[in-house]
Amino acid sequence: MDQKILSLAAEKTADKLQEFLQSLKEDDLTNLLQNQAVKGKVAGALLRAIFKGSPCSEEDGTLRRHKIYTYCIQLVESGDLQKETASEIVGLLMLEAHHFPAPLLVELANEFISAVRDSSLVNGKSLELLPIILTALATKKENLAYGKGVLSGEEYKKQLINTLCSGRWDQQYVIQLTSMFKDVPLSAEEVEFVVEKALSMFSKMNLQEIPPLVYQLLVLSSKGSRKSVLEGITAFFNAVDKQHSEDQSGDELLDVVTVPSGELRHVEGTIILHIVFAIKLDYELGRELLKHLKAGQQGDSNNNLSPFSIALLLSVTRIQRFQEQVLDFLKTSVVKSFKDLQLLQGSKFLQNLVPHRAYVSTMILEVVKNSVHSWDHVTQGLVELGFLLMDSYGPKKVLDGKAIETSPNLSRMPNQHACKLGANILLETFKIHEMVRQEILEQVLNRVVTRASSPISHFLDLLSNIVMYAPLVLQSCSSKVTEAFDYLSFLPLQTVQKLLKAVQPLLKVSMSMRDSLILVLRKAMFANQLDARKSAVAGFLLLLKNFKVLGSLSSSQCSQPLSVSQVHVDVHGHYNSVANETFCLEIMDSLRRCLSQQADVRLMLYEGFYDVLRRNSQLANSVMQTLLSQLKQFYEPKPDLLPPLKLEACILAQGDKISLQEPLDYLLCCIQHCLAWYKNTVIPLQQGKEEEEEEEEEEEEEEAFYQDLDDILASITNRMIKSELEDFELDKSADFSQSTSIGIKNSICAFLVMGVCEVLIEYNFSISNFSKNTFEDILSLFMCYKKLSDILNEKAGKGKTKMANKTNDSFLSMKCVSSLLTALFRDNTQSHQESLSVLRSNNEFMRYAVNVALQKVQQLKETGHMSGPDGQNRDKVFQNLCDITRVLLWRYTSIPTSVEESGKKEKGKSISLLCLEGLQKVFSAVQQFFQPKIQQFLRALDVTDKEGEEREDADVSVTQRTAFQIRQFQRSLLNLLSGQEEDFNSKEAVLLVTVLTSLSKLLDPSSPQFLQMLSWTLKICKENSREDALFCKSLMNLLFSLHVLYKSPVTLLRDLSQDIHGHLGDIDQDIEVEKTNHFAIVNLRMAAPTVCLLVLSQAEKVLEEVDWLITKLKGQVSQDALSEEASSQAVLSNHPVEKAIIMQLGTLLTFFHELVQTALPSGSCVDTLLKDLCKMYTTLTALVRYYLQVCRSSGGIPKNMEKLVKLSGSHLTPLCYSFISYVQNKKSKSLNYTGEKKEKTAAVATAMARVLRETKPIPNLIFAIEQYEKFLIHLSKKSKVNLMQHMKLSTSRDFKIKGNILDMVLRDEGEDENEEGTASEHGEQNKEPAKKRRKK
Fold this sequence. Notes:
Layout: H1 2-10, H2 15-23, H3 26-39, H4 43-52, H5 59-78, H6 83-97, H7 102-117, H8 129-139, E1 144-146, E2 149-151, H9 153-166, H10 174-180, H11 188-201, H12 210-220, H13 226-249, H14 261-281, H15 283-297, H16 307-316, H17 320-345, H18 348-353, H19 360-370, H20 376-393, E3 398-399, E4 402-403, H21 409-432, H22 437-450, H23 457-469, H24 478-485, H25 493-509, H26 511-525, H27 530-546, H28 565-568, H29 574-594, H30 599-615, H31 620-632, E5 651-654, E6 657-660, H32 664-688, H33 693-722, H34 741-768, H35 772-798, H36 814-826, H37 833-840, H38 843-863, H39 874-894, H40 897-903, H41 911-929, H42 934-941, H43 950-953, H44 958-978, H45 986-1000, H46 1008-1023, H47 1029-1043, H48 1050-1064, H49 1084-1117, H50 1124-1133, H51 1135-1156, H52 1164-1194, H53 1199-1236, H54 1241-1254, H55 1257-1279, H56 1299-1307, H57 1313-1320, H58 1328-1335
């Protein structure tokens, strides 16, 4: 039969074939087809023949065709056929679909849809036909019956797609169904149906099946709905990530259920690759992604951003076109996030309204962590982002080698955090990804070398962390580091020191690197530039410190442990130590040559030798010998010759130019410290060992050597005491002027002598063992120092230029200062009292000791370390800081200033006041540099010695300890305030408030101690009145800084504004203002400008917070993809925030209502008030615009908003206009006054310029008011509430032509036109002519 059908089909006409097919029974054909198909023989040809003999023009043919078609579909679906046969059949069916009439196509499509809905598909092969059927249907023009109506083919296709998408899809056919739609012509609406359905299936599918589905969706997105596809994918993975992190941090039992981390990350990585690939082919998709993420950011920097979307963005940076945009977007998001965090941390009001969220910075670091799972496509983006953040937000400008922040304090914090985040990203990426290590190192070194003029400390810190993490790994990149060494002699000294310190662990691993560095340093030794030679010295000293010689003391025996950088790599065997010895002695030879170079180079050497000894004790001999031979050049050996030092030899005269050749004071200082170190560390150890005889002989030689130095120092001390100033030719009559060479020489000598005295004071104090004679020597040395410093100060005072402005750093070491202060103020040992009374009797000496301590702490605040030995060692600095603070605190609290000052009137500050100043500096330095050690610091301050209670002590919180210290200072301030007004010591009060401010930062804002502090400060402000601007300002600042962490300060501002109004009176002089005495601190003299400017700046901050909240709300509403119910929910959830905003603005309105009526003195107060009013109206306008947005979805506006508008119309706007008139009248009066004085035109011109400057904010304010009213009119129309009924239209700026005045002006022709022009610009027309007449 099959043969017959095929032979009939071969004929030209199909008539016989039709007849034959007609004659067959229904099942014959299907059975025949099944047999042929299963055998895999001529099924295709047979099918063709059957279709040829079943034309659609006849009803029978159509039905036969339909039957065969559906049967073939079942055959293909059954899975009984071979692959080739099935494909052939499907291909034929595809070709035939277009010949079907529309109703049959509808039937076929419906059969498919019900098969999908009932999950009756077996292998889904036949689904390939559905797009063809739908496409064929869409081309049919005739109307088809649907229900009771009729639809065209296109509409029917839409209806079918809708039915298909609203039905249930079996999980295994989701990908096939989605991919099927790419072959169907779809309208935008239909694409949206399909995309929504596919996205809703994500959660039901296995994780592994999602990437292919995402791929199909991305292909489909070329037809439209790009935004939905991207939003859906990111939203799904954000949710999965969130769930995953919650599961991981939650109960461990859940791990069984959840996806393993690695699998999830691999899937995410694949999907990101798919999306990036799609963006490369379709840039529109990339633009949509950026648009979607930026839109979410409008109100809140954390909306829409998540680890997944950030990783996606970073991968997109590989596409050239988007690179800059994406990095810029991430950079601004990071800074915005840090700024938001800062705003939140500084305001309890905001903390209560805005929930705490994850920040962009933590998300980015999470991406770095996740990128372990072969996310190689993300790493390049991470590296670029890290460097972008470090470059953009690193420390700015350099001045005198110090980095200066150009921006004010507040904006600095987010920038610092952003820079730090950049460094963290790079460090973590470096640790994880080997492929970018070389690049990161290269980029860091490039920046270090090329940016010599700008501060690069942040890059050097990063380099140090990288090297510390993996010195051995970096050996492969050693050529890069060696390359950087070639530039050493051109880099600033600070950079060289930090760079060498950073790469120092590498030098221990790589001999070649060490050798190349030594070559570079040797060359630099003889360079022309002084800086290059200093760099060479710094480099050599660093090498000496870090290459241990065999037999050197271990770090536990040394006074300082080795730096962390040596912990990772210390690969020294015995051989290394021996090699190190020759290596170090070689370097010492090189350094000896430096002793004939400039003073600066020698000075560096003297400052570095002590550290070298401490780290490398075997070099002691060599170092000390060098120092001794150097000292002998300037020492007078004959015991009876005065002075004992040859100062002339220290000074170099080249023609008229006089300069210092040998910093003798530093040399002595170095000798003294090395000697003390030797006595304390080496000698006790040597005495403890039983040595062999030979060694003992050697030792005797060595000890003789140290004895020698001891004798020289003792001899210098004795002779210095005997020497008069005349011996140095430095008495009162000497010339110290900086203009003559003699004067310069004398001042250099004077500083040398003063330095030597200080060094000897420390030397004698260290060997004194509390002997009375030594203390008397110390005092004599101090008197010599004092005389010289008095002479220099006196001469400096007389000279017009401040000479010797650089008060040289004191030579006393920090350790000495802390021991000296402890001895002077706290030593109660009976046997010491007699000798100590020698020093205690001299008030000048005690003041000097405290002053030096202050100088050291100031130095720490400015540079982060102190001069002198151990000044770079953080632990030692901290220890000494604790000791010094304990003494200063005891001295200040036990002997108050009032007691001390009543006794004796002296020049300069009293010791107690100096102690207080020291405490203020210490508290701020500790918070700046030792934040983690604050608990330890406060424990050290507990003066009561309770050794046994140490253990109980440990669990006392920082807040409790701080509160204890605060109470002491509060008592002192109360004592000060309880005295008479004329006895009030302003300096001390301001210092006390500053101390309280810095201590209050350590209190936890939720603790009762914090509340006590706040209520105490409020009480002080309410009850005490002092006419001292500085005190008032610092106290008010303290009050505000505490208050914002408790709640918003708007009510406080309202009360203060009433006080200011009461004191200064009203702008209308006929009105008597009743005085409200909320705060006694506000008095007539303080009200303006001090308090007025303070409250205005606070009001500005409140406005900024409100503005931030409104922007946040707008961002939430503008997510316009929200459906109706979602948006009404959003409006409901915003309710508490809206209420808070309206309350804030309402209270601020009453605050401005008071100030606008106050007769403020012209100047800064008026200017600031006008600017802040302008901000107030801008914020009100922003709120009105927000309600315009909300009105669309919810319809109305809340009642309290209506009240706010009413209040602004009655209490603020009219008063603003009268205030503007008041300001303009004041200005014109001052102009008239200037005119009356008939001074030179210059005076008039400056007055004019001032008026111009001061009236500038007025037009801005008027514009802001009018903008506000304009949007209110819009809102009134939208909300059907007449909000304008409370607004009076302003008439104060109507333009009138006054005829009589015009005539007079026209008659006045001889006047200077220029002045007329300028003044009339200010709407002063009515005043002008009167002034002119007077001038005539």
